[in-house]
């Protein structure tokens, strides 16, 4: 399955040619998850001292999906070919002081347990909120400091080298994998019920997952209508990498993990 040739079938190579990124290659979607039992699980874990959130669960679930169930999504386009990443890395949006948005990168997220995720993400979020953002996000400050129109020209060169041609220059913090494999953002914590994100033009991520609000809604359980806690999740996926079958496998796995979150307490086999 990890043979490079298996990721470059005719359709995927054709899609990489006929679609641009990200103007006309986006798939938008919205899914609702019954998280009644999952919220109870999170509450119990927090009482025991493990300060997990819905974001931790989602990041690990998506990462393991890319690592085990849908490796086709852990790819990016480089010079017309689909390239499979060597690791599953997640980018997680965080709220910074002053209302600004930042992010932290979680390397090899598919190999973490819930305990690992809390430790890693907590440390990186604290550093980010102190002004110590990761190297990728620091480049936005450099770009913003340039006068117009030089700012646009520099970005075009950056995008050409990294996104279109796939070159990496570690000394300049320029990499085709700077943003990792995918991004997760929680807008529910900001009071928004649902959101449809954008694929970042400066990244090679295959998808952005948005956690919306959670509300009580009627649902059918064992042929009875009962109140349940429902989470709204939005997504945008790069159609050059994703088709309906990939999306179906991804969200089936997420539903499975949301019903069986204890799986994330152990490292994947």
Q: How would you describe the overall organization of this protein?
A:
This protein has 269 residues and is of the alpha/beta class. The chain has one domain (4-265): Chloramphenicol Acetyltransferase, CATH 3.30.559. It is built from 7 helices and 8 strands; from the N terminus they run αβααββββαααβββα. The strands form 2 sheets. Strands 1-8-7-6-4-5 form a 6-stranded mixed β-sheet. A two-stranded antiparallel ribbon has the order 2-3. Helix 3 (54-69) packs across helix 7 (244-259). The longest helix is centred in the N-terminal third of the chain and has 16 residues, at 54-69. The two termini are 16 Å apart.
Quick synopsis:
The chain has helices at residues 10-18, 36-47, 54-69, 114-129, 135-145, 150-164, 244-259; strands spanning 26-34, 75-78, 81-84, 90-95, 101-106, 182-186, 207-221, 224-238. By secondary structure, it is an alpha/beta fold. It has one domain: Chloramphenicol Acetyltransferase, CATH 3.30.559.10.
Instruction: Assign the CATH topology.
Output: Chloramphenicol Acetyltransferase
Which term fits the overall shape? globular
Terminal Cα span: 16 Å
Task: From the alpha carbons, calculate the radius of gyration and give it in angstroms.
Answer: 19 Å
């Amino acid at each position: 399955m990890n043979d490079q040739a298996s990721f470059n079938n005719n359709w995927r190579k054709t899609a990489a040619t006929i679609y641009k990124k990200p103007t006309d290659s986006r798939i938008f979607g919205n899914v609702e998850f019954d998280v009644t039992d999952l919220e109870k699980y999170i509450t119990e874990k927090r009482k025991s001292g493990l300060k997990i959130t819905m974001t931790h669960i989602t990041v690990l679930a998506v990462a393991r999906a890319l690592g085990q169930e849908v490796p086709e999504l852990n790819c990016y386009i480089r010079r017309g070919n689909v390239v499979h990443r060597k690791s599953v890395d997640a980018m997680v949006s965080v709220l910074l002081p002053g209302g600004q948005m930042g992010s932290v990168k979680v390397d090899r997220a598919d190999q973490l347990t819930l305990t690992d995720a809390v430790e890693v993400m907590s440390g990186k979020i604290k550093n980010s909120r102190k002004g110590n953002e990761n190297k990728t996000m620091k480049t936005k400050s450099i770009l913003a400091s340039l006068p117009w129109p030089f700012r646009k020209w520099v970005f075009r060169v950056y995008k050409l080298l990294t996104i279109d041609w796939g070159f990496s220059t570690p000394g300049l913090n320029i990499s085709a994998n700077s943003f990792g494999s995918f991004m997760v953002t929680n807008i529910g914590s900001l009071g928004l019920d649902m959101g449809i994100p954008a694929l970042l033009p400066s990244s090679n991520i295959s998808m952005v997952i948005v956690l919306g609000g959670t509300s009580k809604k009627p649902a059918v359980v064992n042929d009875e209508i009962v109140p349940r806690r429902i989470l709204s999740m939005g997504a945008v996926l790069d159609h050059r990498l994703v088709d309906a079958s990939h999306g179906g496998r991804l969200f089936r796995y997420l539903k499975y993990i949301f019903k069986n979150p204890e799986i994330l307490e152990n490292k994947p086999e």
